[in-house]
Amino acid sequence: MALPSDKQAQVEELLKKVKECQKELTNIQTNRQKLITQLSEVELAKKEMDLTKEGDEIYKLTGTVLLPQNRDEALMMLTKTQEHLKTDLQRLEDLAAQTEKRGEEIRQQIVALQ
Q1: Count of CB atoms within 10 A of residue 10's CB?
Q2: Would you give the DSSP letter of residue 52?
């Protein structure tokens, strides 16, 4: 059964919106994977730091140079970085849920038009 041209145009417009949602979800997933990788690196660095003792020499790789760093400062920076990454990860997960919900609503509109 063919749809009238105005309904067909509406369906095509809604399909474009669904594709946009899918693109957004792909981008969100890519960014989420990057954050997960960074978070696991930070957690690994914190575990390594836990193996050190007070007074041990700690070095940070900056470019191609190893620079000495205070152990407490390094732990504090790793903890802050971990918190920021977790916050960003939660924000992306919320955004993904909203985008999925929006895509589902658009799909329902398409079904209603057909």
Answers
A1: 15
A2: S
Q: What is the pLDDT of residue 7?
A: 82
Q: Burial-class residue 21 by CB neighbours within 10 Å (0-12, 13-18, 19+).
A: buried
Give the chain's domain count: 1
- Give pLDDT, residue 2: 55
pLDDT tens for residues 26-51?
999 999 999 999 999 999 999 999 89
Cα distance between residue 58 and residue 71, in whole Å: 6
* Domain-embedded: residue 78: yes
Asked if the structure places residue 97 within a domain, the reply is: yes
Q: Which among 88, 93, 95 is positioned nearest to 38, based on CA atoms?
A: 88
User: Can you tell me the distance from the alpha carbon of 101 to that of 40, in angstroms, rounded to the nearest whole number?
Assistant: 29
Handedness of CA 16, 21, 22, 27 (dihedral sign): positive
Q: Output the pLDDT for position 6.
A: 82
Specify the pTM. Answer: 0.81
